[in-house]
Amino acid sequence: MSDAVTLTLTTAPTHTLVADCIAADRFAGLAAPAIAALAVTHGGRPATLGEFFRVEGERASVVRIEGDCPQVEAIGTGMAGGELVIEGSVGRDLGLAMRGGRIDVRGNAGANAGGAPPGAARGMTGGEIVVRGNVGDEAGARIRRGLIVVTGDAGRGMGKGMIAGTVVVFRKAGPGTGRFLKRGSIVALGEVERPGTFRYACTYRPPYVALLLRYLTSRWRLVVDTAQVTGRYERYSGDLAELGKGELLRWVGA
């Protein structure tokens, strides 16, 4: 047993590499050769994880990925526990249908982070994803529970069709943020384009947001402005085209 399993990118994929086998809880019971033998798909063709990554360590629920992996997709699919740290950027479908644990991306992430598989009614149902960069379109789409935090910009449709859970974006949130939101909270610390089917409710200092931002500072070591912790937020209820029980909280200053 090791303290952590480290995957170091040794051969950059020339096509999309679907690596949904990479999840911290799955590695907890596997020896290094078994991890290297896990199946992946490279450009639609079967391959093994060891053809692209050097594996160090075994039987650990802490996994570190070293190397920039923008063409590697579906990392953390269905993950139910443990910790996954990615030292670089990753492709789409990060934490797809994730159920628990923590994913820390020290770079950018592609579309559908924390989202649902094709045809599925719900995406992420637990756990935490922090992206210390930008995310692509529809981050947090159809999530049921859990927390997604983006310290950079988010693409179109962030939180689209959310059923519950919390999404936080520090910078610009793209068009369509919160569209078809049923329940849950979207916290926008920067610019956000609000759908017309959201209704203004009030401006206040939400205690929940203060607790959440303090948690992100202490647990994740994120830099949060004190004015954002204690500041005022406009609350919009929506999406009124759906249940209308969700909320969009937009920081408006101290």
Write a concise synopsis of the structure shown.
The chain is mainly beta and 254 residues long. Helix content is 11%, strand content 32%.
Topology:
Elements: E1 5-9, E2 17-18, H1 24-27, H2 32-36, E3 39-42, E4 45-48, E5 53-56, E6 62-66, E7 72-73, E8 80-87, E9 100-105, E10 125-131, E11 145-150, E12 166-169, E13 185-188, E14 199-204, H3 207-220, H4 226-230, E15 232-238, E16 246-253
Parallel strand pairs: 1-6, 2-7, 6-8, 8-9, 9-10, 10-11, 11-12, 12-13, 13-16
Antiparallel strand pairs: 1-5, 2-3, 3-4, 14-15, 15-16
Task: Give a verbal description of the structure.
The protein is mainly beta. Strand 3 (39-42) and strand 4 form a beta hairpin. The chain starts with a strand and ends with a strand. It has 4 helices and 16 strands. It has helices at residues 24-27, 32-36, 207-220, 226-230, and strands at 5-9, 17-18, 39-42, 45-48, 53-56, 62-66, 72-73, 80-87, 100-105, 125-131, 145-150, 166-169, 185-188, 199-204, 232-238, 246-253. It is elongated, with a radius of gyration of 18 Å. Helices cover 11% and strands 32% of the residues. The strands form 2 sheets. A 12-stranded mixed sheet has the order 5-1-6-8-9-10-11-12-13-16-15-14. A 4-stranded mixed sheet has the order 4-3-2-7, with no helix packed on it. The longest helix has 14 residues, at 207-220. The model has no long low-confidence stretch (mean pLDDT 96).
Dominant shape:
elongated
What is the number of E strands? Answer: 16
Overall residue-averaged pLDDT value: 96
Which residue ranges are poorly predicted, with pLDDT under 50 across at least 5 consecutive positions?
none
What structural class do you assign from the helix and strand content?
Answer: mainly beta
Strand order of the largest sheet: 5-1-6-8-9-10-11-12-13-16-15-14
Q: CA-to-CA gap between the ends? A: 49 Å
Series of secondary-structure elements, N-terminal to C-terminal:
EEHHEEEEEEEEEEEEHHEE
Strand content: 25-35%
Major β-sheet profile: 12 strands, mixed
**Cα-atom Rg, whole angstroms?**
18 Å
Number of helices: 4
Helicity range of the residues?
Answer: 10-25%
Oligomer: single chain
